[in-house]
């Protein structure tokens, strides 16, 4: 077991429905600690840069539009096996396929408006954390 840090976004569908606390409560209940958090409204350039790996996918334009449609909460989560643990509590990308008790099953609206983002590898976690946070903004 190693303590890891991963990166999370509470997406615009959740901030619009005032679910920041509800999502965070589920993350904390899963053993994750919020060691950095800020509410931001991403610019188009920021969102395009963040999702650059998806730029060839057919839903890229819509995904960027959705992610800038309202505020998001970007967070750094810390804990034992934080990256995998966060992916587990998030549930499958499509909420219809997500396990009961996961954030997406309980709260997501659709495959696009799916409430949370979570890094899918430790390497991506480090890149994504650095994209939004300075080291001194993360307090473990
Ligand atoms: P995330 O990267 O947000 O944590 P994920 O890793 O489960 O989610 P990805 O395959 O990386 O899913 O897709 C990134 C995001 O793009 C999804 O979370 C979702 O918001 C959106 N997305 C994925 N597939 C589709 C689709 N078929 N149609 C519309 N939007 C989609
Ligand atoms: Mg992903």
From TrEMBL:
It is found in: Cytoplasm. One of its GO terms (biological process) is UTP biosynthetic process. Its EC number is 2.7.4.6. Its cofactor is Mg(2+). CDD domains: NDPk_I (cd04413). It catalyses: a ribonucleoside 5'-diphosphate + ATP = a ribonucleoside 5'-triphosphate + ADP; a 2'-deoxyribonucleoside 5'-diphosphate + ATP = a 2'-deoxyribonucleoside 5'-triphosphate + ADP. The active site is at 117 (pros-phosphohistidine intermediate). It is an enzyme of class 2 (transferase). Pfam families: NDK. The keyword Ubl conjugation does not apply. Residues 3-140 form the Nucleoside diphosphate kinase-like domain. Major role in the synthesis of nucleoside triphosphates other than ATP. The ATP gamma phosphate is transferred to the NDP beta phosphate via a ping-pong mechanism, using a phosphorylated active-site intermediate. NCBIfam families: PRK00668.1 (NF001908). This is Nucleoside diphosphate kinase.
């Amino acid at each position: 077991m190693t303590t890891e840090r991963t990166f999370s976004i509470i997406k615009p569908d959740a901030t619009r429905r005032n679910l920041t606390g509800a999502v965070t409560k589920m993350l904390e209940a899963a053993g994750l600690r919020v060691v950095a958090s800020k509410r931001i409204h991403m610019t188009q350039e920021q969102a395009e840069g963040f999702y650059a790996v998806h730029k060839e996918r057919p839903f890229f334009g819509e995904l960027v539009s959705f992610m800038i449609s309202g505020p998001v909460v970007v967070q750094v989560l810390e804990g034992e096996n934080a990256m995998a643990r966060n992916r587990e509590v998030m549930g499958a990308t499509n909420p219809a396929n997500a396990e009961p008790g996961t954030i997406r099953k309980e709260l997501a609206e659709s495959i696009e408006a799916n409430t949370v983002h979570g890094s899918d590898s430790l390497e991506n976690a480090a890149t994504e954390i650095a994209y939004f946070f300075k080291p001194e903004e993360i307090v473990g």
